[in-house]
Amino acid sequence: MTRVGAIVLAAGRSSRFRAAGGSGATKLIEKLDGRPIVRMAAEAALASRARPVTVVTGHARTSVEAALAGLDVEFVYNPEFSSGLASSLQVGLSAMPADAAGALVLLGDMPRIEAQLIDALIDAFLAKERALAAAPAHRGRRGNPMLLGRGLFEAAMRLRGDEGARRLIAALSAAELVEVEAPDAGVIVDIDTPTDLAAARQSGSDDF
Q: What is the 3-state secondary structure (H, E, C) of 132-176?
């Protein structure tokens, strides 16, 4: 059976969060619904059929790993985490097994992603013969997580700085990209500031 892996990016420095008044080593261990937000992202991946689930750590590595204690995830460390998102994505892609047809890329600060959506992205990607990627959208706005097919791994390895896969996805034709309609706004909700966190604690993802 063809498999697709999952990468949880959890290496960032939380610069915007701390600049806006957030405290602590990293925003990823802040609690939402009683759980660290990075744990929510990892648990969604584990509840899906994506395997393996790999977590890329960097800044505050010890705190992030502690927040994920007991979960069946593989940790890989990005020593170049301060260079930006691209290097963490590349570390995660390099950790994918050779037989993985692709990798779902989850952001550790997006806690409202559901396992059902991850599975829908995998199913849609595998069902379309020429697909190079799959992405969710909500009310016309494209979001995360994005699924990168192995055919995009080489191009992703050439990204630099804080650039993720969005440019690669945007360059694909309709035949190469599968878009899946997301049932709620969780695909566009991330936690960048303490205000975002407070809003998430008060509201469901549909209210963002």
A: CEEEEEECCEECCCEEEEHHHHHHHCCCCCCCCCHHHHHCCCCCC
Dig out the tokens for 24 from the structure: 């602590």
Q: Inform me whether the pLDDT recorded for 122 exceeds 90.
A: yes
- What are the tens digits of pLDDT across the range 15-31? 889 888 888 889 999 99
Does 52 sit behind a cis peptide bond, omega within 30 degrees of 0 on the bond before it? Answer: yes
Contact assessment for residue 162 and residue 175, using Cβ atoms and an 8 Å cutoff: no
Which residue in 23, 26, 24, 22 sits closest to 12, CA to CA? 26
Which domains are delineated in the chain? 3-203 (3.90.550.10)
Give the number of other Cβ atoms within 10 Å of residue 124's Cβ: 17
- Sequence letter at residue 179: E
C-beta separation of 182 from 174 below 8 A? no
Q: What is the pTM of this model?
A: 0.94
